């Protein structure tokens, strides 16, 4: 069966930004498939079909993309939202732990992209919207591994967009600032914590908890995703919420001053 309405596939759609995005796309007229590692725990959402998916598994990814194409006949938009947070000083995370975060945030996104691209190229159209972050273009002490994944997403997405544009496919980035979700509570903690960083890590954790409480509503990010999915002339990057101001600061403020402000914000010595 081929759906008459456009079809969107949203990963990590059971809560937070993913759920808000799935609902926004459904309200905009899309048939939406939302995924989660355990959809039994996902609350029903009007207009959204849920499927179990582990973006870290090749077979799971292939099976879900195949099922969506078989059921709906098309995938017009892929939103790569599934991800996991990571906190702690860089030295406190083993390479094995960092690899597990990359396997979801970066390689999971690549698996999904590789799975849908042949279909989109064959149809001559499609949008892949990748969830980046404010720390995809600025540093964040005590989130080095997470920031590294989002910097990777930025470079991958912009490069890929140039490769597939001639086939009618666009690869676009949405860059949220801190958002009021369970992100901070669900972040991976360092697997080899060191006393040398304990004090600074605690200061960061307090800062991050407050930033998330004061963060943008997930609906703000969903609005940016919807724009990326539907704009007639899409932009490569969509700043969501307060990210736009940081983009401007990074572009206009001298590097030394930006560095000083970042350290002050994170209560690090000058």
Automatic annotation (TrEMBL):
GO molecular function list: oxidoreductase activity
InterPro entries documented for this protein: KR_dom (IPR057326), NAD(P)-bd_dom_sf (IPR036291), SDR_fam (IPR002347), SDR_oxidoreductase (IPR051911)
Gene3D superfamilies: NAD(P)-binding Rossmann-like Domain
Keywords: Oxidoreductase
CDD domains given in the database record: 17beta-HSD-like_SDR_c
Ketoreductase domain sequence ranges: 6-181
Family listed: Belongs to the short-chain dehydrogenases/reductases (SDR) family.
PANTHER family, per the entry: SHORT CHAIN DEHYDROGENASE, SHORT-CHAIN DEHYDROGENASE_REDUCTASE FAMILY PROTEIN
Protein name: Short-chain dehydrogenase/reductase
Protein source organism: Streptomyces tateyamensis
Lineage start: Bacteria, Bacillati, Actinomycetota, Actinomycetes, Kitasatosporales
């Amino acid at each position: 069966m081929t759906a008459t309405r456009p079809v969107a596939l949203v990963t990590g759609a059971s809560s937070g930004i993913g759920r808000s995005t799935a609902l926004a796309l459904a309200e905009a007229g899309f048939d939406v498939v939302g995924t989660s590692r355990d959809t039994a725990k996902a609350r029903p959402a009007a207009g959204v079909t849920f499927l179990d998916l582990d973006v870290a598994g090749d077979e799971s990814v292939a099976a879900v993309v195949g099922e969506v194409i078989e059921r709906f006949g098309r995938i017009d938009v892929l939103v790569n939202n599934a991800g996991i947070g990571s906190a702690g000083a860089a030295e406190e995370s083993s390479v094995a732990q960092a690899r597990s975060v990359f396997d979801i945030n970066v390689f999971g996104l690549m698996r999904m992209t590789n799975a849908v691209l042949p279909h989109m190229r064959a149809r001559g159209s499609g949008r892949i919207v990748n969830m980046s972050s404010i720390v995809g273009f600025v540093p964040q002490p005590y989130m080095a591994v997470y920031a590294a994944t989002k910097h990777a997403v930025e470079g991958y997405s912009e490069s890929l967009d140039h490769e597939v544009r001639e086939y009618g496919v666009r690869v676009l980035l949405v860059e949220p600032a801190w958002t009021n979700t369970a992100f901070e509570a669900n972040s991976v903690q360092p697997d080899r914590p060191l006393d040398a960083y304990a004090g600074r890590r605690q200061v960061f954790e307090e800062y991050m908890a407050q930033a998330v409480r004061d963060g943008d509503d997930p609906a703000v990010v969903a609005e940016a995703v919807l724009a990326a999915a539907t704009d007639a002339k899409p932009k490569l990057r969509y700043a969501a919420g307060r990210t736009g101001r940081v983009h401007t600061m990074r572009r206009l403020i001298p590097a030394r001053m930006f560095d000083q402000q970042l350290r002050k914000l994170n209560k690090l010595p000058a």
